[in-house]
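[retry 2/3] Valine--tRNA ligase, mitochondrial: previous attempt timed out, resubmitting with same input.
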Amino acid sequence: MRRAGPAPTAAGSGLVFVPPAAGHPGTAAGRGISPFLQTLRMPHFPLATFLRPPLWGLRPSRSLPRPRRLSAQSEPHGSPITRRNREAKRKRLREKQAALQAGIAGESEAQLPQATGETFSMCIPPPNVTGALHLGHALTVAIQDALVRWHRMRGDQVLWVPGSDHAGIATQAVVEKQLWKERGVRRHELSREEFLRAVWQWKDAKGGEICEQLRALGCSLDWGRECFTMDVGSSVAVTEAFVRLYNEGLLYRSRQLVSWSCALRSAISDVEVQSRPLAGRTELQPPGCPSPVSFGLLISVAFPVDGEPDAEVVVGTTRPETLPGDVAVAVHPDDPRYSHLHGRQLRHPLTGQLLPLITDTAVQPHEGTGAVKVTPAHSPADAEMGARHGLSPLSVIEEDGTMASPCGDWLQGIHRFVAREKIVLALREQGLLRGLQDHPMVLPVCSRSGDVVEYLLKSQWFVRCQEMGDRAAQAVVSGALELCPSSHQKSWQHWFAHIGDWCISRQLWWGHQIPAYLVVGEPSEGDGEECWVVGRSEAEARQAAAALTGKPGAELTLERDADVLDTWFSSALFPFSALGWPRETSDLARFYPLSLLETGSDLLLFWVGRMVMLGTQLTGQLPFSKVLLHSMVRDGQGRKMSKSLGNVLDPRDVIHGVELQELQAKLTTGNLDPAELAIAAAAQPCRHLPLPPRLQKKNFPHGIPECGTDALRFALCSHGAQGRDLHLSVPEVLGCRRFCNKIWNALRFILRALGEGFVPHPSEELCPSSPVDAWILSRLALAAQECERGFVTQELSLVTHTLHHFWLHSLCDIYLEAVKPALARVPCPQGPPQVLFSCADIGLRLLAPVMPFLAEELWQRLPRRPGGPPAPSVCVAPYPSARSLEHWRQPELEWGFCRVQEAVQVLRALRATYQLTRARPRVLLQSSEPEEQGLFQAFLEPLGALGHCGAVGLLLPGTAAPSGWAQASVSDTIRVYMEIQGLVDPQAQLPLLAARRQKLQKQLDGLAAQTPSEGEAETQRQQRLSSLQLELSKLDQAASHLRQLMDDAPSPGER
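[retry 2/3] Valine--tRNA ligase, mitochondrial: success.
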């Protein structure tokens, strides 16, 4: 028998189940259980139906201790006793997990009584393998898992595919930092094979941690289908996709401008370019630069006009280091200041070479001097202008960020930002520097390396996106693809209307090596460029090369492209590559296209858009028909959660709690830059979860208190999938933890009321025996209706709000209190226990998708309904449908009970006014409306119980009020009277009322003296003023009544 102990206070953290190791006889893998059970190989099944040891607090016992009170105050965690208790709890849960799996072997959604025959498929947005998950991931999987669990309980055949992304640039950057930190080794000091071996070791260490986090969060993923974007299946899919796109003319190799990180020595995607606004002069120190560099400065440079000694054109630039690459100066053709110089030539201020003065309508004549330098090799806008005018680009910056040979010996080989200072100094010495001033600008920065992004001309592989983009845009217009919220449609259409070709080459070692081969010594037909061929293997590429050159394949020399593909390329294939594509698998036939894609709104274009493009092109179908986009969790600087930035918080720290020392230790073991590490270490921890670098140490001197999985999930889902950026606080999660404890205690009460030997009736046979029973069943049916609507529309905030209101308000605050008199009768009537059971059973099943641990633990304790085999777990029990409970709905009764609740509030206010703490005074209600008299007649007993009163009766209309009774109005037609004679000492109460009145009057005077403001603040002030005036009026009325009682009281001689 399980020893009595405190109730799980973390509502899930006390119920975090750790399954046995893979392949163990107690696991699905070890016994060959069906794919459905492999979906359940995670800690969301807490108990077996046949293993139900007594749960503390859920059976009547006078000797049991009271549960430990949950407090929102921070407290120390990690004591030896706490750790031992937690380890013992996890051991028990592992045993229960194994027992449950052994008991439901062979179960599947298709075999469930409520099976619908429909499928629901979804894939997890594969998290980067570079490290642990953060709260942004927790939000994603909390929403997804709730939807998956609802569909599973509905009876749909569910597939939720887990996976992780190899994250080429991010992983390589993190591993390079780690190698330098631990071994003092740079990547280029290792061979490619040695470096890849180190990356795989990193992946093996971090990939397992991600799985453990997902299990701790209760994710019911199909672990048997777990995939990684660098595994064999994904590699085959990537190669096949590249070859097909190439053969269809949608892939080509070209020398174009790309966004380049000199620190990484690789092209980067647009999503890795962060725009940093600068208000003016700002000192920054890019990686590899020996000293800080000034950005946000506009430098004016004079270009002398050839042949006119005193004439010049002044050009403004924020990038003087690119001056050696200038090939022209451009002005607007209608700018009168330069009309006389059209067709003239200018002298380059550094080299003296002649440059043409060209005219172009793209020049903004009202910005700066109206003249701009043209550097096609280092500016996308200049590249377009140069192409229009036939200008040849001149590259002056190398891959590593140093100056190239065309700059001359005085600049060649030095860092580009060191060269910037030398160039400005040279201009000053030559007398061609015309000014230097602060200039607001936006600086492109690489999010992975922190380096300033350069634009370099490189020969890369590109995907033609226009045709595929048009189809993706049309899919939304036609309704074939739904974006939710629909507000994202505008950005979707704009992005695809202006989409350019996609550079997919990356100069990395970690990733899918491009399946393209250079035919050495063989020029391409027509243009004399390099000859490239593509193939699924070198043998296939050799055949293509032989056909292209007309030479025997054995005589040709092939060199495979050393670059790898952009990570987004393999990620774009994930919805179908994870199901076995390009093979025709049963999973692909059954579950593709996916039913839904749920992800963060920041991934809409870079991931979702590319999945739609490639999925439609390669499979002939949209990869999914609906995209659900949730709000983002960001840090205090507005940055997205990123492992390489170090601004993350492990969800397990919120679930289990963590000490301050451990939080700070995690910083030192990460890959933060020294400056960012110093800020974070000095600031941790915080009141707001997603803001580790800007935390306040004083808020949680002992770290983060234990909150629990269910509390965290409920808090995340309560923000909804379609709101603004989310700022989650620890007190909010602790509030959800207290809500879990409320449910726990409600089940204690219900099971005690049911007693031993209770046999539930079928729900369709349940007939309420009293109006209050009918009311709670109507509220339960409404809760089921609203939860169903919330899940159908994927508005999880509606689900959580409905559940919170039903459990906390309708059930705990009202019905459990109202039903106590009926339960106290001997013998106890049969109706209330049956109603209590239905509320618990249906309420827990409604709760299960968002709070799986608590729902499972408590649902297993309920008696089983007779007839038919019981569901082995709440997660495969039927989800209550609105239609099945429709016969319980009584909206008119609910409306009428609202009047009863108004009377209850008035009675409680009267009790508070007269300080009736323990007394149960008699109460009379009087209404001038006969219909209201009948309504209150039906609810007299619940009214007395909820109002903490004694006997409650009705006073006929027109009857005089009892003498000496306190009275108050409920409405224009209803008054209540409360007997206080003999229960209140007027002489003792009057001074107390006077003191309370003085306190309220002081608050009222202070609020009234405030200067009126505007908007919502003034509205709140006026509401508070009205509230205080009403309270003062009640106190005055009570004081007057007490004085009247004193006057009417008989003197001692009259008694």
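[retry 2/3] Valine--tRNA ligase, mitochondrial: The longest strand covers residues 251-261.
[retry 2/3] clearing retry counter.
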